[in-house]
Amino acid sequence: MEKTKITNMEVKKKNRNHIYRYICKCETVSNPDISYALKLSLPTVTQNTKELLELGLIRETGELQSTGGRRAKALAAVADYRLAAGLDITQNHISMLLANLKGQILKYERRAYSYRLGQDYFWEVSQKLEAFIAESGAERERILGIGISFPGIVDLKKGEITNSHALDITALPFEDVSGCFGYPCYFLNDANAGAYAEGIHFQEKEPFFYLSLSNTVGGALYQDGHLMQGKDFRCGEVGHMTVVPDGLPCYCKKAGCLDAYCSAKRLSDLTDKKLESFFAGLEKGDKELANAWEEYKKYLSIAINNIHMVLDCDIVLGGYVGSCLGPYIEEIQRMVSERNTFSEDGSFVRSCNHKVGAAALGAALQIIELFIEQV
Ligand SMILES: [Zn+2]
Hints:
Layout: H1 8-25, H2 31-38, H3 42-55, E1 58-63, E2 73-77, E3 83-89, E4 93-100, E5 105-112, H4 119-136, E6 143-150, E7 153-155, E8 160-164, E9 169-173, H5 174-178, E10 185-189, H6 190-201, E11 208-213, E12 217-223, E13 226-228, H7 258-262, H8 264-268, H9 275-283, H10 287-311, E14 314-318, H11 319-323, H12 329-339, E15 349-351, H13 358-372
Parallel strand pairs: 3-6, 6-10, 11-14, 14-15
Antiparallel strand pairs: 1-2, 3-4, 4-5, 7-8, 8-9, 11-12, 12-13
The structure holds zinc ion.
Zinc ion is lined by residues 240, 250, 252, 254, 257, 259.
């Protein structure tokens, strides 16, 4: 019988990693608290926190209140020991973000900047990101790297953006992009990045499908720290499911795709191109906007029901539209429930927790996770 051998070294490393992750999750915590929570002996915990203190990854912040006996030392993660940048690239904007090891956003900026083919674009974005980091006051050597999110197929095996209809990209090697930046780069799809921020940041254990409703529609399947990528990194590309045979033209050159009915543009194009203006007009009772909203919700509920029938998991609505859905979520749940074959109440549908810069944050969090997993 084959048995996986786990060496003492591996156990030690695993313990240290668990302890460090636990401290990162807490404001302040003591060695006895960690010992109790992780079911590790107090000497093991004390030895590990001593090492983490020596490395500068955690610090002592005084003493915790005691209910009797000696007061325990309070320990906390040094959140800015290292930082990560996130960059979300879309057709007309870039979003830049700086996060610390606890995943807290230190600085965020979204600005209009149109994508164009060629390396000049990436050189310019790199300069903007350098200026953004400098403005934050963060020391350059603390930056672990940049997570870059693209609205397209990001093939980690081939090391290229194989396809982005939105940006008119075919086969863009990662190195053509990373060569323009002065930090290590990690690439991921925008919906995957949004799902990652949603999952990691909110400690999701159950699987969920993240439906990204931005100027393009995408999706990602997340479970316990992992993204389902698919054979060719196309898992979750629900924006190109057919919802109306031979329906409205999609930017992918097919017809009747979900994207043609449920992109954020479908709503914002009816006003001054700002989604907030659409929802403000809707609140004021604009008839034309109300009709468009009814149609939008109809196709959205079809898509949600179809995805849920395949995956049987929660559906998180993210992206620009998902972030504005708070007041409308019950209505969408009801519409989904009416389509549901198993009389489910629709509570498996919810609006995303992370409303601003989710893709840029998810991209930064990937870099942070790569660091934390080797502590
Ligand atoms: Zn399409």
